[in-house]
Amino acid sequence: MTLVKSVAVLAVLLAAVAYFAVRARRLYRMLRLGPNENRFDHIPERIRGVLSYVGLHTRMFRNLYSGILHFFIFWGFVVLLTAIIQAFGEGIIPGFSLAPIGGNTWIASLQDLFGVLVLAGVLMALINRLIIRPRQFHESNEVDALIILGLIATIMVGMLGQNAARIVQGGDPSASWRPASSAIARLFEGVGWRGTAAVPVHEAFYWVHILAVLAFLVYIPSSKHLHIIVAIPNIFFRKLGPKAGAALAPIDLEHAEHYGVSQVTQWSWKNLLDLYSCTECGRCQEQCPAFLTGKPLNPKMIIVDARENLYKTVRDAPAGQRRDPPQPQKLIGEAIKEDEIWACVACGACQQECPVLIEHVPKIMDMRRSLVLEESKFPKEAQNALRSIETQGNPYGLPRAQRSDWAGGL
């Protein structure tokens, strides 16, 4: 029976990892379609940013409620990697244990504590999405979020149930270090699950635990929660130096193959990584002056629509996202409307709020450049101003002779 279990655990693990690797490779190949961009400078500063934005959640805590629940879930998963290693280790190798490094003492205690904290974070997230329902979640993928929260909760229930069942079997050296699992164990004893009667219960919770972990792994590449994997590199490769809109990348007018961006794969690999990293949290839109004053721009949807355009038009998109054959959807005019592009005031408020440091403004400016330099398209107001500059030397259309009238009487 032990050999059969070891083979079964190893088989499902290898199958899930292989499936994840195939989908991750497709995402990487799409990323490589973008032009090169050097983001490997100032390594110490980039590492400090990761420690601040990821480790301490400095931007997440601007919204205290969301910051707390995300902090619980994020650090819970970091700590509970030990539980995942332990579960697969003992399933594949009989007698495997983390006891030599504290698996039955302080690690067991942390697993119990963070298992409860993660469940608390999941409950807070469900309340936020289903009851509070802030405006920033509108147009986000609610089903995807609920699937992820369900998988996270299942992983935690499986882990705690597995530990509780081991305790009621008797002889578990970590029992005194697991207060939450011990409390669940007393409930199990109340329904008669003790000793050998708890063995099948332990096996059931064990398989719930590892299968939920593997389901989570294979689902991530086709989910907006891909940020779990790509947010850290996206923050590491963030733009340093001038703030949003302060400096546009120069264009080599003599040698450039295109002016601005009219196709999603004309963005650099870092800009495409931004698209993968969006969590659809909506914080950017709640700081955007254009959105808040009723303009057609929503910075969140700029990123989401550009990502969907990438998945629609590139054949290497993961199976869950691929459109076969690729659809000829234009980035500008179809995926993203021209009115949205021109509504941006380039203030950079969206970038200053984004917890994963997505760069919205340069993308919008690139699309504007394409409209102006490649298609000679710009708003009517801009046409009048430019025509006035050409004919009268000022954007207001006033006669040249009146140019100095403003100084009269000084």
Quick gist of this model?
The chain is mainly alpha-helical. Helices cover 58% and strands 0% of the residues. Helix 2 (43-55) packs antiparallel against helix 8, helix 3 (64-92) packs across helix 4 (106-132) and helix 5 (142-169) packs across helix 6 (179-190).
Q: What does this entry look like structurally?
A:
The structure is a single chain. This protein has helices at residues 2-31, 43-55, 64-92, 106-132, 142-169, 179-190, 199-219, 227-236, 269-277, 289-292, 299-313, 338-343, 349-353, 360-375, 380-392. It is elongated, with a radius of gyration of 27 Å. The protein is 58% helix and 0% strand. The chain has two domains: 2-32 and 63-222; 264-391, Fumarate Reductase Iron-sulfur Protein, Chain B, domain 2. The longest helix has 30 residues, at 2-31. The protein contains 15 helices and no strands. The chain is an all-alpha fold.
Order of helical and strand elements: HHHHHHHHHHHHHHH
Summed over residues and divided by their number, the pLDDT gives a mean of 91
Please, how many domains?
Answer: 2
How many angstroms separate the termini? 98 Å
Which band does the percent of strand residues land in?
under 5%
Oligomer: single chain
The DSSP helix count reads: 15
Number of DSSP strand runs: 0
Q: In terms of per-residue confidence, which ranges show pLDDT below 50 for 5 or more consecutive residues?
A: none
Q: How does the major sheet shape up?
A: none
Overall helicity: 55-70%
Overall geometric form: elongated
